[in-house]
Amino acid sequence: MDGIGPALSRVTLIDGQMAGISGDMLLGALIDAGAELDGIQSTLDMIPDHFSKCSRVKLISKEVKKHGFRSCRAELMITEEESGETRASELILATQEVGVSAKLSDKARRFANNAVRILTDVESKLHGVDASSTHLHEAGSADTLADILGTATGCDSLGLFEGRIYSCPVAVGGGTVTFSHGTVSVPAPAVLEIARQHHVPIFGGPSNEELATPTGFSILAALVDTFVEVPPLLIPDIVGYGAGSRELSGAPNVLRLIVGHTAQDEFDRDRVQVVETNLDDVSGEVAGLSLQRILEAGAEDAWVTAAQFKKGRPGYVLHAICNLEDLEKISRVMIAQTGTLGVRYQPWNRFILQRELITIKFELKQRTFDVRLKVARDRFGEIARVKPEFEDLDSISRATSLPARVVSDLVLEKARKELGRKSVGSEA
């Protein structure tokens, strides 16, 4: 795709804040952004060969206006031959077979397979039956296959799988929706369950009707690497708008897709939660023990800083970094260990290096030791830092009667040879 830098610098943002998401809206946004229509149609042409209920799938792309905004409407004209419910296993098998027949990339096939499994697994959970026995209703049509496989092909066409994909929180609408199981509140149970399982942030409105579909949410959950409240740092190259079928009273019924690149090519990004509490009535021993318990509970990091509070009282601030799924657990441990009346938390965005732990053999004074090395690399695989585990250095130091700093220098010299890098650091 013209105008995009190296594959690793590509950044994609899916913005469903205006009018939610559905499979056809995302498909329209991809086409509007430049995905090859003929390539998508070639994939869809293979669906009838592997899904007996369908004899024809035709994709029609046309320009429409929503509240004055130009956008692309992707309409699927489908002829289905058989009636009756579809088993989850049929949908899964058809997705796998079409992905292979269409010669989609490994990443595209993996996405499509994950998306259909997310959808079928949620249906089985909601109906309380084994996944192999699940019968699908609305989700079991050829529309679902076309949305998922069309999205996989469109993302392949634009090279989106070679970069990082983000999504804003998704508008789900409001009111009620009626389908095969009756009338339920918005969001539909399948949408809500996908959001719960895959930590998709949602909010109500802006229209009092259904804005997010189970297929759209299963695609989103399988496609997105990171959900963000604030769009990531990027330089936009292409913007695509995908239109929904209805006219909304309060907003343009469009999904926005932004494809760009970022100058921070060497870094990965992630989002963590920082939990904190003020302590002005505990001892240093309690603060230190609380720190240890928080780390044992799964926090990525934790630390204590000295502070001075009202009336000149000295104390501490206890901090912890954790993933979103561990937020409540870490908060409970912090409250239980310190006796604090509450904690505060906030999301932090980070630039990070990829980290791995490797072990090398190290010989010293006619003895052989295993030394663990913490290796940090950038997104291109270049080594940025190597640090030996201090416990291993201490063990070797005790066994050889050499200072730990001398052992560290010798280990890092060995690491340079093992890793083929001359820029390995010297920090112990």
- Radius of gyration, in angstroms, nearest whole number: 26 Å
Poorly predicted parts: 1-8
Q: Strand share of the residues?
A: 25-35%
The helicity comes to 25-40%
Count of all domains: 3
What is the structural class? alpha+beta
Structural features, described:
Helix 5 (106-127) packs across helix 7, helix 7 (189-198) packs parallel to helix 8 (214-223) and helix 11 crosses helix 12. Helices cover 34% and strands 32% of the residues. The chain has three domains: 7-266, no CATH class; 270-352, Alpha-Beta Plaits; 354-419, Ubiquitin-like (UB roll), CATH 3.10.20. The longest helix has 22 residues, at 106-127. It starts with 9 loop residues before the first strand and ends in a 9-residue tail after the last helix. It is built from twelve helices and 20 strands. The strands form seven sheets. It has a five-stranded mixed β-sheet. Strands 15-16-14-17 form a four-stranded antiparallel β-sheet, with helices on one face. It has 428 residues and is α+β, with helices and mostly antiparallel strands.
Write the layout of secondary structure elements.
Layout: E1 10-15, H1 23-32, H2 37-44, H3 47-50, E2 54-66, E3 69-80, E4 86-87, H4 88-101, H5 106-127, E5 135-136, H6 142-158, E6 164-167, E7 170-171, E8 176-179, E9 182-185, H7 189-198, E10 202-203, H8 214-223, E11 226-227, E12 235-243, E13 254-261, E14 268-279, H9 284-296, E15 301-308, E16 314-322, H10 327-338, E17 344-352, E18 354-364, E19 367-377, E20 383-388, H11 390-400, H12 404-419
Parallel strand pairs: 1-6, 6-11, 7-10
Antiparallel strand pairs: 1-13, 2-3, 4-5, 8-9, 12-13, 14-16, 14-17, 15-16, 18-19, 19-20
Helix pairs in contact: 1-6, 1-8, 2-6, 4-5, 5-6, 5-7, 5-8, 7-8, 9-10, 11-12
